[in-house]
Design goal:
Layout: H1 2-13, E1 34-38, E2 41-44, H2 45-61, H3 69-92, H4 99-112, H5 117-126, H6 131-151, H7 160-175, E3 181-190, H8 197-215, H9 220-227, E4 241-242, H10 248-254, E5 266-267, E6 271-281, E7 289-300, H11 308-323, H12 329-336, E8 347-351, H13 358-365, E9 376-378, E10 381-394, H14 397-427, E11 430-432
Antiparallel strand pairs: 1-2, 1-11, 3-4, 3-6, 5-6, 7-8, 7-10, 9-10
Helix pairs in contact: 1-2, 1-3, 2-3, 3-6, 3-14, 4-6, 7-14
Length: 437
């Protein structure tokens, strides 16, 4: 149930994507009513119903089972309240999304769905969503994203001490015997449940004699076939598995035993075990290699002297000149880019995942070698990106540290965003209203 709940919460957050759009040609209620008020701004029943339908269709498209109508409606309403409070905060702090940014987002969505913008709008109209309504949803999502960057992302910092602590914990995990994977084989001399002390001593002596023979060089698998009271197939081998899937007494008995060697006798309720260590693997939580990207870019910083719309238009023209062969990317970067990489033709060098802001990295990851992106908006301004090439590289100790830093930052971002969202919700005045009788 937890996985389903988390899924439909995420579905609502991403409900503006075309892939999630259902047929929304629903009949408008003749008498709509207010279900909640957020800081004097109403949320209507029709808004909740439309959002519920969007989420339901997305969940079904992913072949998931929706929660109950009551649970779904409650979650959708809470999300709308939270978003409304955040949009109000964005307006208070002066965040504005201009038409050019909405245009670009709409173009990106159309391109992702392999459609022209006009066809994209016609498809939405057919699904019962006017273009103006969808553009308003896009503007809201861009606003919320910009607000999160300002209020949450920019404030999360990972110190060197945080990285050292995480690496130490990783090392501790690697040496934890229960986190390792081991493959054991056993020879069991069974002890009947109601055996007296004399029989137990005889069976123990038999097991001890077999242990001596093994340590003297006799083949373990052969002796298993001849004497073991457990499964004799595959020489008594259990197969490679995490150590915590074995009885603790087996792990403790073999922890210091070298691969290929056998343990002392292990007493259990089943009898006397001789355990041979066939294989041992330490866990590896960190990737040993990554795919790096080598990219060039042109950056235009937006502000009073250059609006975002003007920057988008200008870089669109520059891209056309590059694609048509009238100039090359490096020359254009030296002429137009306002980034420190301009003298090097916009060369950003090799970069591992997580080194760039998400908008930049997402656009770069969709490119093939030599391709130039459309203009990309980030909090730094407007970019034009050219992917030079990609490569697989082994991680150096410094790279591993950066990987850990990025992992910690992502975890802290999720935690900080959840806390920030709750705080905004708690600070808002919210009045829930019952439907009219």
């Amino acid at each position: 149930m937890l996985m389903k709940s988390r899924f439909w919460t995420l579905a609502l957050a991403a409900s503006v994507a075309l892939s999630a759009l259902p047929a929304l040609a629903q009949k408008t209620q003749s008498a709509d009513f207010v279900v909640a008020v957020v800081n004097s701004e109403p949320i209507t029943n029709s808004e909740v119903q439309a959002a519920v339908q969007r989420v339901t269709e997305q969940i079904k498209a992913q072949r998931q089972t929706p929660p109950s109508n009551e649970e779904l409606r409650k979650g959708v309403l809470e999300r709308l309240i939270s978003d409304r409070a955040q949009l109000q905060l964005a307006a208070e702090v002066g965040i504005r999304i201009d038409d050019a940014a909405v245009d670009l987002a709409e173009q990106n969505l159309a391109r992702q769905n392999q459609m022209e913008v006009d066809a994209f709008r016609q498809r939405m109209a057919k699904d019962g969503i006017p273009a103006a309504t969808f553009r308003m949803q896009l503007r809201d999502q861009l606003t919320l994203s910009r607000l999160r960057e300002r209020e949450v992302d920019a404030r999360v910092r990972i110190s060197d001490q945080d990285v050292e602590k995480a690496l130490a914990e990783q090392q501790a995990t690697n040496t934890d015997p229960y986190a390792q994977e081991i493959n054991l084989a056993q020879l069991l001399i069974a002890v009947p449940e109601k055996a007296d002390e004399k029989l137990v001593s005889q069976l123990q002596a038999q097991a001890q004699a077999l242990l001596v023979r093994i340590r003297s060089g006799e083949d373990f698998a052969t002796l298993v076939k001849q004497h073991s009271d457990a499964d004799r197939s595959k020489g008594g081998e259990f197969g490679l598995r995490r150590a915590d899937r074995y009885p603790p007494s087996f792990v403790q008995a073999t922890h210091s035993v070298a691969v290929g060697a056998v343990s002392e006798l292990v007493r259990s309720g089943a009898g006397f075990h001789i355990l041979k260590v066939l294989e041992r693997r330490a866990p590896s939580a960190l990737a040993k290699s990554v795919v790096q990207s080598h990219a060039n870019h042109i950056l235009l910083r937006t502000g009073p002297e250059l609006t975002q719309a003007a920057a988008l238009t200008k870089l669109g023209d520059v891209r056309q000149r590059i694609v048509s062969g009238k100039t090359d990317f490096a020359s254009a970067a030296r002429e137009f880019s306002q980034d420190g990489s301009a003298p090097q033709g916009g060369d950003l060098g090799w970069a591992s995942p997580g080194m760039f802001v998400p908008e930049f990295e997402d656009a770069m990851n969709r490119l093939v070698d030599g391709q130039v992106s459309n203009p990309v908006v980030s909090r730094f301004g407007v970019h034009l990106i050219q992917l030079v090439e990609r490569r697989h590289v082994d991680l150096s100790p410094r790279d591993v540290r950066e990987q850990v830093r990025n992992q910690l930052r992502e975890a802290k971002l999720d935690e900080a965003y959840a806390t920030w969202t709750r705080d905004i919700r708690e600070r808002a005045y919210v009045e829930l209203r019952e439907p009219p009788q």
